[in-house]
Amino acid sequence: MTQRPTQKKSAIKRGSRNKSKLPGMDNRLKAFIMLVAAFIVFVLVLVLVFGGFGGRVVKEVKEEVTEEVTEETTEEETDSTDSENGKMVYITFDYTPSSITENILSVLDQYEVKATFFVKESENNSSVLSTIAEKGHSLGILTSSDDEAAIYTDIETFENDVNSCEQYIFKESGELTTIYRFPGSSENANNLIADECKAFLADSNMTYFDWNVSGFDDSEPALTADEIYQNVIDQIEDLNTDRYIILLHDTDANQPTIEALSKIIEKLKSDGYGFDKLTSSSKNVELNSNASVSTSTATDETADETAGDYTGYDDQGYSEEVYDDQAYYDDSVNYEETYDDSANYDDTAVYEETYDDSNAEEQVY
């Protein structure tokens, strides 16, 4: 009889010991699961913040939603304002964000107009990108580089610049943009890689946009609000088209642009123009040469020399002065001034000025 209680106590101890193992195992399992989960979250944060595979992550997500977004924007562009004259205006800003971006947004809110902001990667005022997206405007890629010419060095450099800016916009706004603008326009892209650049954008489901109207608000010296306004209105009135993409700039130095923007919208609304933002389903416009270089700036540079003769710029931005119909640029970007029919360039870059048959002067550089 004395053995039964002993056996019972022993059984109780064994039962208690077996039961106490289970909670310990559960805690260790939970700790392991939490550790794995924390590691996964850490890796995802590194990917999104510092790049690496971030470009592929953004691309995969974008591919999943691109078709749906395209269908929605094609069916109805709900943010557009009605056009009474059948003509639409797309206001665009380059180099967002800046210290004046909020002021631009306030003007657009006042007139209930949507616009498009092409972004340059920046550490300043980045949070405004989410505000732009929340207000229903479009965000597009411009560049991540301070040296815009350098991005056209080769196709790899170009791709890296686009991907970096794309990830920056996604990180700051949560938006997967599908629109792009070539810094300096599509004609400024290095001719040797221009086709490759455009092919890369197409493969990335991106649409690029130039402009056919400019306020020249990046001119030096800076233009007044009235001059910016007049540049825009004059070009729109001179163009015979139903689509106008206006180029303005969003930088710290563009205070006059804010005042000009109000006047531009008021004038065009009163004339019956509609307004909309750019999307991947919007149509591009042909780059207007008159909207590529400020005519007022060009005239000032050569007014003393040409005394009213035509002054223009070629695609590389070189100044051309025309004294008669003979002035031109050759493939080596040699500059030729012609006073009569006898001035020429030879293959050794000899510059020759001939005034008449009896008084010829030749200068060799």
Account of the protein in words:
- The protein is an alpha/beta fold.
- Among the domains are: 79-291, TIM Barrel (Alpha-Beta Barrel); 323-364, no CATH class.
- It is built from 9 helices and 12 strands.
- The strands form 4 sheets. Strands 1, 2, 3, 6, 7 and 8 form a 6-stranded parallel β-sheet that branches.
- The longest helix has 48 residues, at 3-50.
- The N and C termini lie far apart (126 Å).
- Mean pLDDT is 75; it is low at 1-22, 69-78 and 294-365.
Quick synopsis:
The protein is of the alpha/beta class and 365 residues long. 44% of the residues lie in helices and 15% in strands. Among the domains are: 213 residues, TIM Barrel; 42 residues, no CATH class.
List descriptors.
365 residues, alpha/beta, TIM Barrel, 6-stranded parallel sheet, two-stranded parallel ribbon, 9 helices, globular, disordered N terminus
Strand content: 5-15%
- In this structure, how is the largest beta sheet organized? 6 strands, parallel
Give the strand tally.
12
Radius of gyration: 31 Å
CATH class of the domain at 79-291: Alpha Beta
| Overall residue-averaged pLDDT value | 75
Q: State the helix count.
A: 9
At the fold tier of CATH, the topology name of the domain at 79-291 is: TIM Barrel
Instruction: Give the CA-based shape.
Output: globular
Distance between the termini: 126 Å
Please write the string of helix (H) and strand (E) elements.
Answer: HHEHEHEHEHEEHEHEHEEEE
Which secondary-structure class do the elements indicate?
alpha/beta
Range of helix content: 40-55%
CATH level-four homologous superfamily name of the domain at 79-291: Glycoside hydrolase/deacetylase
